[in-house]
User: Fold this.
Amino acid sequence: MSFLNLEGVSKYYGDFGALIDMTLSVERGEFISLLGPSGCGKTTTLQAIAGLVPVTRGRMTLDGRDITNLPVNQRGLGIVFQSYALFPHMTVAENVSFGLEMRKVPTHERNTRIAQMLKLVHLDGHATRYPRELSGGQRQRVAIARALVIAPPVLLLDEPLSNLDAKLREEMQFELRRIQRKVGTTTIMVTHDQAEALSISDRVVVMEAGRATQIDAPYRLYEHPRSEFISGFVGKTNLLPGRLVRDAGGTSVTLAQGQRIDVDANGFADGSAVTVCLRPEKLFFTDEARGTLAGRIEERFFLGSQWLYRVGTPLGDLEVSCANDGSAPVEEHAPVHLAWAGDVARLLATAV
Assistant:
């Protein structure tokens, strides 16, 4: 049995299902991200695990113990809120000490654990400072230290990086993962940032309208999305409607203007309406002789490490992402030809 299990967990407010039949098994030491847009149910899931909201139905177990109806203080979980919720009148050390004091941990042991935790989060020189004297990243690390010092079986993070600026947020993603790996605490994080979820998670749970729509490793989630929603929410994508054709030449999809793309179509019936997913970075510019699809540059955007182009084609506008290798970019309004490798197109069932 997995360390933390959710079995058909649901939360209804009248007829509205904020969380519907969530089933999730989390292994000990795993880092799981709940990813989705606002209102998808990810925060409700976290609050249900924490015991902050009672569930309507379903069952939750932690290390074999049923916690479904246990109050918050009997679950023993570590929680880091979006606002960090630090006590402004307490020093860093006093904030970290709070949970240990509530558990009546002896003073000597308490001081030892506080020192160890502050060293882990690189704040051992800031023990006597107050939250107002710290940067956003430092306050976030204090909140993590306070949650981890009680040695919780599970650490719950509710969008812990959302209040940080873009550069610090990226740095803290990897700092958070470093801390989690060193401590080995099972961690569940809520985020709406797909780059954040993909970069530091062992698995990602994509949620939509209260349901988990795909639970997978980041790479598989990105490369093999199960729906149009997932392919568009997790990264950029080009979605091309077409119809599946099986003939002597193999399996392909016929798109607009008779364009055909070879695909792996396991599980799809001949003649069925489908959608082809092509990621922008899988498309590239090539010469006319080898070109798969003619087009014209409508717009280009410089993103630092890459160029993003909007290319008008007979199939509609396509996004193309090219690494910035220092060479001159393709000019706007220039004619181009697009190609892609034969195994990068992903097939999705057309949404009804």
Remarks:
- The chain has two domains: 4-225, 236-349.
- The chain has a mean pLDDT of 92.
- The chain has nine helices and 20 strands.
- The CA atoms of residues 11 and 75 lie 19 Å apart.
